[in-house]
Amino acid sequence: VVVETASIISPVTASISPIVTGSEVEGEALVVLAASPVTAAPARPRAVPGAGGLPQPSVILGETATLASLATPAPDQLLDYTDIAARQALKTSDAAEYERLILTGAYDPPPEQLAVAVQTELARMNCYTTTIDGAWGNGSRRALQRYFDTLQVAAPSQDPTVEIFRQLLQKDDVACPDVVAPAAAAPAPRQSAAPAQAAPRQAAPAPQPAAPAPTEGRRIRQNNGTGAFR
């Protein structure tokens, strides 16, 4: 709804004084009423087109969501979010304007590039140390958590969102500490194998007396105790 403003026209006042002329009509003086010049009313202001095609001056009534959509920049008004030098220069020279552009989405990346944009910002702040490929996995989630841990605030989400990307731009001076790899456990000392105990040596068997020569074919005959043998 557009309400045009209008100025209030004040009533015109004029002083009237009689002027008597020298001529007479039927014995009476001719009286001519002369009025002072009438002041014209000031021109009524007209609404003229302004930024975004809206008339100025105007009063806009509507829902908050509708008004917010009017502040959203058109695609041709989006800024290059990858130009970090230009962003930093604007933030230094006009922090309020930089904040306004972030909140109105002027730096928002295309939806298909959101994960890459978040990874890029996290890598620039030493929170993400692996390949920037747009694949959002556990490494990216840990990097996002390191960012919010450094800020000492709770992470609103573990996934890339437009709100998180805007927060990265608002707080882009974070420096995450270096990731320290856990120390590898020292290998357990190798235990030398105990030498196998040699089996006790068994004593060699005692030599057996030689068997007597066989007496086959020989006959011993005792001859009546005479001691003769043959």
Question: How would you portray this structure in words?
Answer:
- 27% of the residues lie in helices and 10% in strands.
- The protein is of the alpha+beta class.
- The strands form two sheets. It has a two-stranded antiparallel sheet with strand order 1-2. Strands 3-4 form a two-stranded antiparallel sheet.
- Helix 2 (84-93) packs across helix 3 and helix 4 runs parallel beside helix 6.
- The chain is rod-shaped, with a radius of gyration of 57 Å.
Q: Could you tell me the radius of gyration in angstroms?
A: 57 Å
Helix content: 25-40%
**How far do the termini sit from each other?**
162 Å
The largest sheet has its strands arranged as 1-2
Biggest sheet features: 2 strands, antiparallel
Brief write-up:
This protein has about 230 residues and is an alpha+beta fold. It is about 25% helix and about 10% strand.
List keywords for this structure.
230 residues, two-stranded antiparallel ribbon, alpha+beta, 10% strand
Compile the SSE list and pairings.
Elements: E1 16-25, E2 28-35, E3 48-49, E4 55-56, H1 64-71, H2 84-93, H3 95-103, H4 114-124, H5 138-151, H6 162-170
Antiparallel strand pairs: 1-2, 3-4
Helix pairs in contact: 2-3, 4-6
